[in-house]
Specification:
Blueprint (H helix, E strand, L loop, with lengths): L1 E5 L3 H13 L3 E6 L2 H11 L3 E5 L9 H12 L4 E6 L4 H6 L8 E5 L6 H12 L3 E3 L1 H9 L13 H11 L4 H8 L3 H14 L7 H15 L3
Parallel strand pairs: 1-2, 1-3, 3-4, 4-5, 5-6
Helix pairs in contact: 2-3, 7-9, 7-10, 8-9
């Protein structure tokens, strides 16, 4: 796995590089600004980019803009975005056009090495990884009493929250201590209650998670 890191904090940038190289992963470049990041994408053609949301010069959304441009240049590029805190608009945008090979983690997740590496590999394999703390904060925000999520049972909400993290059915079953068959049943119920007509399963799964994120934001 070839990786480019874009992070302006030198301690975090070099710490990430050391961690990944210790795992026998190939960190081909580390950068601290959007321009050098995009140049590294062109020069090294990596499999995965790890990108900070806020980068110079304004420390607003330069990292996101650079990640979008990198995916435009290399549509197959997997991107794992790091943020110091929950940015609800981006968490929703993450899934708005399909979320294959995309992840969004809070920076303190990097210190939980096993979880960070699991998210990195999941994204590299074409999956989705949304930080559990992001999902929790979205879940606990005030919601409109008539939203469609109110149709879901508590267990169905648990399943949908796990789906929003990017977990597959087997992992959801293990987390909730239920059978995989029970997870399939809950997901079918979620699709029905959210009015998602039968179609490609992956598309309905993304649509369900997007609905979840949209209705749990401000």
């Amino acid at each position: 796995m070839r990786i480019v890191i874009a992070e302006d904090d030198p301690l975090l940038r070099e710490g990430l590089a050391l961690l990944l190289r210790a795992e026998s992963l190939d960190v081909v470049a580390t950068t601290d600004n959007p321009e050098d990041f995009l140049a590294a994408i062109d020069a090294h053609e990596p499999d995965v980019a790890i990108v900070d949301v806020r980068m110079p010069p304004t420390h607003t959304d330069e990292g996101i803009a650079a990640a979008v441009e990198a995916r435009r240049r290399r549509p197959e590029l997997a991107v794992l975005v790091l943020s110091a805190y929950v940015e609800h608009a981006f968490a929703t945008e993450l899934l708005s056009g399909g979320a294959a090979g995309l992840g969004y983690l809070l920076k303190d997740r990097v210190g939980r090495v096993a979880q960070f590496l699991d998210a990195l590999h999941r994204v590299a394999d074409g999956g989705t990884a949304v930080d559990p703390d992001v999902v929790t904060q979205l879940l606990t925000r005030t919601r409109r009493p008539d939203n469609t999520l109110s149709r879901l049972s508590p267990r169905e909400r648990d399943v949908l929250a796990a789906m929003a993290e990017g977990l597959g059915n087997v992992a959801i079953a293990e987390r909730l201590h239920v059978t995989e068959g029970a997870v399939h049943k809950h997901i079918r119920n979620i699709f029905a209650k959210l009015g998602l007509a039968p179609a490609d399963r992956a598309d309905r799964r993304v649509a369900a998670v997007l609905r979840y994120l949209q209705e749990t934001r401000d």
